[in-house]
Structures are given as structure tokens and as C-alpha cells.
Write a structure and sequence with these properties.
about 190 residues; alpha/beta; 8 strands; about 20% strand
């Protein structure tokens, strides 16, 4: 929805930036020709580029903060190999939507305050600690982030889980992670 609009993605995590830039260069055939994996397979046993390993590394274990090497045997009630194939198809079908994105390594404070739609999905206050440590041992000043989010010109959507208390979040949905069920919440501001 609205993928044809101008999109600027800024992330502090170099792996995320590298992965999005790789996907921009891929064709659907590139994604669909990635190896079929089964539970227990190790990505080091396949002839993959660094970028292909990044992509597959996030797919082999769902909901992780960094790429992994070994395919989970089961995820929730589903077969992981089946989920990887489903995800490869979904990615291949949607590559055209990101070809025009501007992708940059940086911090949220680098966005100009233009009239736009801001989708803000930071490492979560509680539950995102592992992600924080993987990005230069950074710690988020959630008070500063809340002030920044509220100051944006335009529509703003901020994602979190229900344990967060740095904004007045409202319930959105229940999610099942690899270890826990969580309640996803959002803070929303109209134009």
C-alpha cells in the first residue's frame, strides 16, 4: 500500500542497511534460486554470498536480532523449511516495491521534519535489549525518542510491545514469537 511513494529508510544497524540494499539489487529469480533448506541445515555448508547469508540467516530462525546459521527444525506449529520457502516467494513477489527507496546507515535524528508519514519501529524498550547490544552497545533514550516522535510533521506510527511505557500506546494485536507471545501496541498521530 503506497509503496510507489518516496521512501527513506534510516537504520543504525549496518546489517539491516546492507540487507535492504542487497534486496534492492535482487531479481525475483535471485531470491527463488536460494537453496531449499531443511531443519538442521547450516548456512556455512552452502555456497552463498555475504548478503545471501544475511537474508537466509534471518529466515532460518524467525524473530531474531541478528542472522543465524542453523535452520530451526520447528517454529511454533509450523515446519521451518516450509516457512522459509513461503518467505522467499513473498520477498520475490515484492522486490519491485523497494527499488526506489533511499536507504541509509544512520540515526532517527537525521530525518528532516518534513510533512510525511513516519513509521517508527525502534528496538523495544523491554524485549529489544539484545538488539540494542548488537548495535554498538547503544542504549536508547526513550524520553528523547518520544519527544522526537511527537514533534514530527505529518502522520506518525510508532510500534512497541505492551510492556513499554515511554508513550501512551494502544493495543494493536497479539503476536507469537519464537519463545513468547506478546501484545503489539502502537502510538498514532494523524496529519
Amino acid at each position: 500500500m503506497y509503496f510507489e511513494k518516496e521512501v527513506e529508510l534510516i537504520d543504525k544497524y549496518p546489517i539491516v542497511v546492507d540487507l535492504w540494499k542487497y534486496l534492492q539489487q535482487c531479481s525475483p529469480k535471485d531470491i527463488l534460486s536460494l537453496p531449499k533448506l531443511k531443519g538442521g541445515d547450516n548456512l556455512d555448508n552452502f555456497n552463498l554470498s555475504k548478503e545471501e547469508k544475511l537474508l537466509m540467516g534471518f529466515m532460518v530462525q524467525q524473530g531474531v536480532n541478528a542472522p543465524r546459521k542453523t535452520v530451526s527444525k520447528v517454529f511454533g506449529n509450523g515446519n521451518m523449511a516450509h516457512l522459509i520457502e513461503r518467505d522467499k516467494q513473498r520477498i520475490a513477489d515484492n522486490l519491485y516495491k523497494i527499488k526506489h527507496w533511499k536507504i541509509k546507515l544512520g540515526e532517527y535524528t537525521e530525518f528532516d521534519n518534513t510533512d510525511a508519514c513516519y513509521f517508527i519501529d525502534p528496538p523495544y524498550q523491554y524485549g529489544g535489549e539484545y538488539y540494542h547490544s548488537s548495535v554498538n552497545n547503544s542504549h536508547i533514550d526513550f524520553t528523547k525518542l518520544a519527544k522526537w516522535c511527537k514533534s514530527r510533521n505529518g502522520q506518525v506510527v510508532v510500534c512497541e510491545n505492551d510492556k513499554a511505557d515511554w508513550m501512551d500506546f494502544k493495543y494493536l494485536s497479539d503476536l507469537s514469537g519464537s519463545k513468547n507471545r506478546t501484545k503489539e501496541v502502537i502510538w498514532y498521530k494523524e496529519n
